[in-house]
Amino acid sequence: MSSLSLAARDASTMLRRNLLHARRYPSLTLNLLLTPIMLLLLFVYIFGDTMSAGIDGGAANRSDYIRYLVPGLLLMTIGSTTIGTAVSVSTDMTEGIIARFRTMAIHRGSVLIGHVIGSVLQSIISVTLVGAVGVAIGFRSTDATVLEWLAAFGLLTLFALALTWIAVGMGLVSPNAEAASNNAMPLIFLPLISSTFVPVDAMPGWFQPIAEYQPFTPAIETLRGLLLGTEIGHNGWLAIAWCAGLAILGYFWSTSTFNRDPK
Q1: How far apart are CA 63 and CA 48, in angstroms?
Q2: pTM for the complete prediction?
Q3: Which of 154, 169, 182, 174 shows the shortest CA–CA distance to 239?
Q4: Which segments within the chain are labelled E, that is strand?
């Protein structure tokens, strides 16, 4: 077999291993998935009328706020899911299985590739579940074309890939699973200070640059534009640039840390 075939075989083996772990220990994934679902239900049914009145200039309309909220919660779901990746990678590093893998005749990069592909698949499944909850409570995207739906799916996948590589790096540098979970908390915190819940221009002037120039806001606005027909403007290019930059940064950070000889 060629080296590429061996790498693909080993990566698929590691992918199956990670998916089996996720199936046998679903509590972490479920806990992380419940966060965006609970926020969705909370902001729709508790704060929905008030938030929509503030956005629409006094006209309370919960259904409009559902349409506004769901795209942001979908991207927040990805950030939440990838925290599990950081914990999983850190657990592998600290429990000795990686040391065992280093002594075996397997492609070295297959361990990380298995984690990344598994995490992206879990993120897409989680996004689908949160989206189904959104549809169940009234979210509709009637104006999006097939091409726009495909572009939205591509954006979600690319965003999941970028955040997963960052989460892998966080897991590799964390001394234990608890530290990995804490280090990855910005992946949940950043959506809270983005345009997920309210428009950026409704925030205090000094805070608007913080909310605008971070990876979640342009991705959220791009997803809203694709699903709801709102203006995308420069956000599309910014979202792609953020995804590419984070993916490249996370990849080189993760691989260089993983390939470093253990002390």
Answers
A1: 8
A2: 0.89
A3: 154
A4: none
Token pair recorded at residue 151 = 């572009």
Alpha-carbon separation of residue 100 from 92, 104, 140, 260 (angstroms): 10, 7, 49, 15
Indicate the burial class of 17 (C-beta count within 10 angstroms; 0-12, 13-18, 19 or more).
middle
d(CA 130, CA 40): 9
Whether the Cβ atoms of residue 200 and residue 216 lie closer than 8 Å to each other:
no
Whole-number Å distance between alpha carbons of 224 and 197? 12
Collect contacts of 34-38 with beta carbons under 8 A, ≥24 apart: 35/76, 35/80, 35/188, 36/73, 36/74, 36/76, 36/77, 36/80, 36/130, 37/129, 37/130, 37/133
Per-residue pLDDT tens over the stretch 206-243: 999 999 989 999 999 999 999 998 889 999 999 999 99
Residue whose C-alpha is closest to residue 244's, from 222, 215, 224: 215
Q: What is the pLDDT of residues 34-68, one digit of tens each?
A: 888 898 899 888 887 777 776 766 666 788 889 99
Say if residue 125 is exposed, middle or buried (CB neighbours under 10 Å; 0-12, 13-18, 19+).
middle
Using alpha carbons, select from 68, 111, 85, 15 the residue that is nearest to residue 199: 68
